Amino acid sequence: MSGALLTVDNLRISFPTRQGRAEVVRGVSFTLGRERLGIVGESGSGKSQTGRAILGLTPPPGRAEADTLRFDGRDLRHATAADWRSLRGRRISMVMQDPKFSLNPVMSIGRQLMEAAARTASSRTEARAKALAMLEAVQIRDPERVFHAYPHELSGGMGQRVMIAMMLIPEPDLLIADEPTSALDVTVQIEVLRILDALVKERGMGLIFISHDLRLVSSFCDRVLVMYAGRVVEEVKASDLMQAKHPYTQGLFRCLPRIEGGTRPLPTLQRDAEWAR
To answer: Taking the chain, what is the end-to-end CA distance rounded to the nearest angstrom?
Structure first.
């Protein structure tokens, strides 16, 4: 892809075990432009670890290596701590999967949001206004109350909305969203997707959308990577996801619940050892 915002080639992530290093992500390669790229697969397939590695967040003693890991022309393989500080939040943001573990429990929501807003705001007044405006944008009805609240005072869905607001405030060039709508009701989910869609179309943001929801990804994203056992087994145009050729992708679709129901026994995924090779 010409003019790619992000280029990943042969990404490998491993962690030490008693039997030696075990690779949890094996040879993942893709490019991302100013578009919406979905990554789907079962829990443990390597989706979240791939997203974290792009942001330099592979936890030690884990090790992330790649032949190419380039963001907007910058080689991230040898990025220093100072390089990452200049990129994280300002240019690359990530909505983590569980807000209860991502938000600071001893800081108010407003203080955490203003910390994110301070990167682009010229004053505390402007940072506060940005924080409140973004809380409204993610459908929080009483932004002033939530602004002064602490994470333990919020429901899971509201905490997730706060995390999305926090990551969008700096208006990053690349957003990695790990299950960003999983705890949201349908109306809020639609509004959050509308915000993300506008940022991609109007600002030219690149979006990596990690999800288990195949139907959502097929309707919202432009392209989809399907991961199994740390590998990309298929890359398809999102609108063609339901006609995917790989038996793993077909199996995932067959296991989705259907309103008409009536199928007994319930379908299960039949695995093939060849998929992991």
So the answer is: 27
